[in-house]
Amino acid sequence: MTRVLRYFLFFSAFWIAVGVASAQKGEQIRGLHKVKKKETIFGISRMYEITIDQLMEANPEMKEPDFNLKKGTVLRIPFPKQQLATAVVKDADPDETDDIRKRAIRLGVILPLHNVNGDGKRMVEYYRGVLMACDSLKQRGISVDVHAWNAAEDGDIHQILHDEAAAKCDLIIGPLYSKQMDAMSAFVAKHKIKLLIPFSINAPQLADNQYIFQVYQSHVTQNASTISHFVRGFKNYHTVIIDCNDSTSQKGSFTTALRRQLEQEKMTCSITNLKSGESDFSKAFSRTKPNVVVLNTGRSPELGIAFSKLNGLKVTDPDLVINMFGYTDWLMYTRTHLENFYKFNTYIPSVFYYNPLSASTKRLQQKFRWNFHTDMQNRLPRLAITGFDHAYYFLTGMHREGRKFMGVKSHPDYVQTPLQFERYGSGGLRNNTQLFVHYTPDNRVETIKF
């Protein structure tokens, strides 16, 4: 049976409060809270209608890296900080008289939120990231009323859409399955609701439904964009394509299209083989231009062999200038190949960048661990951070611009997933952001956003 999952889906908590008032660094403390078994930081902050950051400010020990919320811990509870007033509009008609900038934004999440299979577990993590974004936005005075529905693959999407709360949403995130798109597309068009499709599903409705936003970019679209940026960025370079003899590779479509474009641009290019001898391998490289190397596989073993051959080449010819240009898959190999990424000035095209060393990433992962007593799944991209970025981007945009928000302004505050949308024909909007993740020879990582 399908059911509505409220904002407190994942949090159960029991509480006691001692009504005392004291001064803590100039802040008024309204009481104390003794932590019970299974209580979470997220749940406690919700209980007292404060943000996690406000709770941490009142309890500085929580900012320590080794802090762990335990049963019996006594926390100081501050008074909520003054927030922007929001007028809750009970009339759900989404017309110009209902200004969402002056009330709580109504967010719906229609995804498989269950523990039955991998789809459900992944979407639960994504949804938790959405909730963390809502909590972060609260301290900025942006209120969000969240409804969530478990839209399992074999469930009846029409039953969910008959829930009156769904028709009142300003933004819906979902669905995960292509077969649910016909009903979803008709529903958001009828009620003038923005629909964010977060993952890779077939959505031909994008072509004629102006309320749809699709994050996913097809491989064809990504390859075309990557090649366009490649020929501009490496215009004065000599390209070396290395055949890696990988019969399972699907990167041949990229290198074939790249070669055609290089020919049209009259840019020099040569082809060599990973099994070639030192002399033949060396002949593929230019001595008068800087070289950029492209493999026709994304696998780690072949990449390791390529780096070994390139290092040997640099020993015999140290003045040779060699850059590497890779694939998004390579972001998973940093533990093995990071030193060579730096050494060969490597560029990796992607639509996301997970930087485990950044302060914002560390903070978000720590909060996730505190809130849900588990770590994010070890996969790229991190789904909770993806959910955080998606929700933060849309909710801040809608709070700023109301119903006129079309996702076209730049998004500088992302943690992992930049977004910027453009109109797809006369229909909806599609994300067109791309990054080059650049590992520089001075051991830095920078992202070049297009």
Gross geometry: globular
- Domain count: the total is 3
The Rg value, from CA coordinates, equals 25 Å
For the record, the CATH class of the largest domain is Alpha Beta
Question: Helix count, per DSSP?
Answer: 13
- Enter the CATH topology name of the largest domain: Rossmann fold
Report low-confidence residues grouped into runs of 5 or more: 1-27, 82-95
Question: How many strands?
Answer: 19
Distance between the ends: 45 Å
- Return the structural class: alpha/beta
| The CATH H-level homologous superfamily of the largest domain | Response regulator
Side by side, the strands of the main sheet go 1-7-6-8-9-10-17-16
Mean pLDDT comes to 87
The largest β sheet comes out as: 8 strands, mixed
CATH architecture descriptor name of the largest domain: 3-Layer(aba) Sandwich
Strand proportion, as a percent range, falls in 15-25%
The helix content, as a percent range, equals 25-40%
